[in-house]
Amino acid sequence: MSAGADMPVVPPPEWRFRRTFHPAALFHELWEARALVWTLAEREIRIRYKQAILGFAWAVVTPLVLMVAFTLFRKAAKIDTGPVPYPLFTFIALIPWTFFSTSVAQGGLSLINNVPLLNKVYCPREVFPTASVVVAGIDSLISVAVLGLLFLRYGFMPKPTSIWIPAILPIQIVFTLGVTLVVSAVIVYLRDLRHALPLILQMGLFVTPVAFPLDVVPRQFRHLYVALDPLAAVIDGYRRTVLLGRPPSLSLLAIAAVSSSVFLAGGYAAFKRLETGIADVA
Questions:
Q1: Which residues contact 176 (CB under 8 A, 6 or more apart)?
Q2: Alpha-carbon distances, residue 75 vs 67, 71, 244, 246 (angstroms)
Q3: Does residue 16 register a pLDDT over 60?
Q4: Burial of 244 (0-12, 13-18, 19+ CB in 10 A)
Q5: Angle ∠(93,106,150) on CA atoms, nearest 5
Q6: Closest C-alpha among 169, 163, 170 to residue 246
Q7: Helix, strand or coil for residue 6?
Q8: Domains of the chain, residue spans
């Protein structure tokens, strides 16, 4: 090639970097870092509740306040919950919603808040948002204890069909982890999302069937609604099995399971694609 010849604008294909992923290797690496996940989760809990007068009670303040607010406005909305007391109807939905919103809100900022550690220590970057999901799970366990007190308060006991919970819970966790992963990576590159995230979560609270039953959604749109928001099927499943003594809608759960898996696979793939530049941009 002569000295005056123009160099190609686009590099040859063999020069391009293509990152390949091996799911088994990624899972093994994350499993090897499980101790770090627990350490980060413990540190986050200590920081969150350090010198707080109410301590771990703050884990249930948000769902309790929302339960009271929804109960006060229930008559204006004319929401029928049948034999189930409305505070129980809303609180059992607020547990998975608070788990999701806390995971996304805290996990979305986990990479930005750990920049010094990112630049000094190599580890799978997904341990940071995963630790936030673990912390949100611990808060949810405290909320479940409060739910037990509400059952005693209203003389309303969980139904035997509650044995379905282990089949519903993984859908909730998978969906939450998938969304948290993609938000935590995108927010590093798009800082405006940091300010928009609380508003998005607030809107999500009102479009998710927390204050109202899933039956409000027209039947012809219900499957699409659940595909876009798998938490709708999760919340409906908890209400059916724990409060009403009925099995969950298997068709809705199946859609939610597939949708949640897509969210996790897509979110994890997006996270790993963006991971290479996180330390530099953050």
A1: 99, 100, 103, 104, 133, 136
A2: 14, 8, 21, 26
A3: no
A4: middle
A5: 30
A6: 163
A7: coil
A8: 22-281
* 238 CB-side CA count, 13 A: 24
User: For the segment 183-222, what is each residue's pLDDT rounded down to a tens digit?
Assistant: 999 998 888 888 899 999 999 999 999 999 999 999 999 9
Closest C-alpha among 256, 178, 186, 182 to residue 214: 256
Beta strands in 153-246 (DSSP E): none
pTM of the model: 0.88
Residue with the bigger pLDDT between 222 and 78: it is: 222
The residue assigned the tokens 């979110």 is 267
C-alpha–C-alpha distance, residues 100 and 94, integer Å: 10
Maximum pairwise Cα distance, the chain: 89
pLDDT at 97: 96
By the 8 A CB rule, do 216 and 78 touch?
no
- Length of the chain as a residue count: 282
**Cα(250)–Cα(247) distance, integer angstroms:** 8
Return the closest-CA partner of residue 208 out of 233, 227, 187, 232: 232
Average pLDDT over residues 50-55: 66
Which string of b and e fits 214-233 if b means at least 16 CB within 10 Å?
beebeeeebbebbbebbbbb
Report how far residue 101's alpha carbon sits from residue 225's, in angstroms, rounded to the nearest whole number: 19
Decide: 132 and 183 in contact? Cβ < 8 Å: no
Q: Hey, what are 195's tokens?
A: 């300010």
Token pair 């999901």 is found at 133
Tokens matching residue 157:
């006991």
Task: Compute the distance between CA of residue 124 and CA of residue 32 in angstroms, rounded to an integer.
Answer: 10
* pLDDT tens, position by position, 118-135: 777 777 889 999 999 999
3-state secondary structure of 243: helix
